[in-house]
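user: can you give me the structure for this one chain? tokens are fine.
assistant: on it. calling the predictor now.
[tool input]
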Amino acid sequence: MSYELSITRLIDAPIDAVWRAWTEDTGAWFCPRPWTADFVTQELHAGGRSEIVMRGPNGEENRLEGVYLEVVRHRRIVSTDAFTAGWRPAGPFMVRIDDFAEDGGKTRYTATARHWTQEARDNHAAMGFEPGWNAATDQLEAIAKSLANP
């Protein structure tokens, strides 16, 4: 059984611009404003480390650590918090899958969160998965458009 949440969007920018926005300016779009994300470590290759600090407008701070499982340029980025650096098991929340596909000069972007349990999936949905990930994707699209049309 799969406990997924997912959004799919057609981004009005070529795949190279969307890929660059995702990989080169991740902190600028990763959290819906007014939250911010600081990518302390972003080793974009299979087995590479990810360390993110998300900060809220009232001083909230959420630290996330994980690893990249798969990175295929212009196609897919898969990461998880089920492991930390050195493949140390951690309390897993999800596997994140970001897929990119060329679609008539635009980019079909799908972001999926796969959870270990129905409860984790439902909690993520209740936290605002759909509006939050859509807002972040709006920010991703704005950056990709600016890269495509400097």
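assistant: here you go. The helical segments are 15-24, 26-29, 118-126, 129-148. Strands lie at 3-11, 36-42, 49-55, 61-72, 76-80, 83-84, 88-89, 94-103, 106-115.
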